[in-house]
Amino acid sequence: xxxxxxxxxxxxTQKDYSISFKLQVVQExxxxxxxxxxxxxxYGIQAKSTVREWxxxxxxxxxxxxxxxxxxKTPEQKILELEAKVKLLEKQKARAExxxxxxxxxxxxxxxxxxxxxxxxxIQIRKNYKPELSNASKKPKKRR
Length: 144
Hints:
Blueprint: E1 2-3, E2 10-11, H1 19-31, H2 36-43, H3 48-58, H4 75-121
Antiparallel strand pairs: 1-2
């Protein structure tokens, strides 16, 4: 950044922006939270072309060939999108089920190891909790 001591003006260059900052701005614009102009005002970016360049380099959309008119999706396109979404959700569900089974197996193995250690070393590792409350947590009874 170059600054003039007399006027207090700070000239910013594109090199001043970190890659993480650029990616954050691009993500906000692509998610619809901000428009290009709003991003310029919010973050003090002087030129809209700077943001457009970031969108071209780091964005997921084709901003150069984007038209203002949104075309309605055909029923076939909607079906294909929904089928892809169903496949993704099924894959996520299968992964979650796999992780749950794995966690259950780990618990069983851990219990077996604790049982073996208790028998071999003749020590009590697990705490035996009684169903009734301890004396410290009971409310004192009123005497009549």
